Inverse folding.
């Protein structure tokens, strides 16, 4: 597959990821990583590096998409910077360690981890489960430690961390709007640290396609970023016109099928 064909494929992926993220209010990484794995397989990329490339590329796209999201949430005073700052250092360290961990795994094992995570996230989405809201101010040490754990796992599976950060913040008494806004802010250091580390870790790996910088694939990043932001707005508009609960359950079912496929094919 040539550059133009690959770029057109990732423009379409960006449009789909943006629409679904806006429609269901979930991070794009949860969508981008599984579809990237399929797209890279179509391109004939080696299975030894395709999962690593999907994770690193997804994190690189989050660097750009999170900036727009942070600006929007900050303008609505929905970012708890007092919670973000203690979490940020832990996130930066944890995401770097997560990218190093992923780089040390075989493509088969990493694909299985992604498959399990996608299935669990889909089950959570379909069930509507969320932790009980608490009423406490977590200490800075706890926020840093939790941030490190969130950054570590997020960098392994290639997400911005919203699936993990929002439930934690609501469990300590943060209002949902502020939990979502603060989670969006946390996605930026996760993505920057994880993407840069993936570039370094994967720099000399064999089997990478042209236009790759380590485990970050340039045409995919460009195509997804160009299309995901405008189509996220479209998805948000559609969310107000369609039956969100039915669509969310159907999408969760699709994610479960995709996750099981990865587990069986790994």
């Amino acid at each position: 597959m040539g550059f133009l064909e690959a770029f057109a494929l990732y423009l379409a992926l960006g449009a789909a990821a943006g629409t679904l993220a806006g429609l269901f209010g979930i991070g794009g990484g949860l969508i981008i990583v599984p579809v990237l794995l399929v797209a890279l397989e179509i391109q004939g990329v080696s299975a030894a590096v395709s999962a690593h490339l999907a994770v690193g590329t997804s994190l690189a796209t989050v660097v750009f998409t999170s900036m727009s999201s942070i600006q929007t949430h900050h303008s609505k005073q929905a970012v708890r910077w007092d919670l973000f700052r203690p979490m940020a250092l832990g996130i930066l360290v944890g995401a770097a360690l997560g990218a190093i961990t992923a780089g040390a795994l075989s493509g088969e094992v990493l694909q299985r981890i992604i498959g399990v995570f996608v299935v669990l996230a889909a089950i959570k989405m379909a069930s509507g489960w969320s932790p009980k809201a608490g009423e406490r101010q977590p200490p800075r040490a706890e926020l840093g430690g939790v941030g490190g754990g969130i950054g570590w796992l997020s960098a392994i599976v290639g997400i911005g961390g919203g699936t993990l950060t929002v439930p934690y913040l609501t469990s300590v008494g943060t209002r949902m709007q502020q939990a979502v806004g603060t989670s969006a802010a946390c996605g930026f250091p996760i993505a920057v640290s994880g993407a840069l580390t993936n570039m370094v870790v994967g720099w000399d790996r064999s089997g990478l396609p042209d236009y790759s910088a380590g485990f970050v694939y340039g045409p995919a990043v460009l195509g997804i970023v160009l299309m995901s932001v405008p189509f996220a707005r479209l998805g948000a508009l559609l969310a107000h016109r369609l039956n969100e609960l039915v669509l969310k359950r159907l999408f969760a079912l699709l994610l479960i099928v995709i996750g099981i496929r990865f587990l069986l094919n790994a």
Remarks:
- The longest strand covers residues 212-213.
- The chain has a mean pLDDT of 85.
- The radius of gyration is 17 Å.
- Residues 3-265 form one domain.
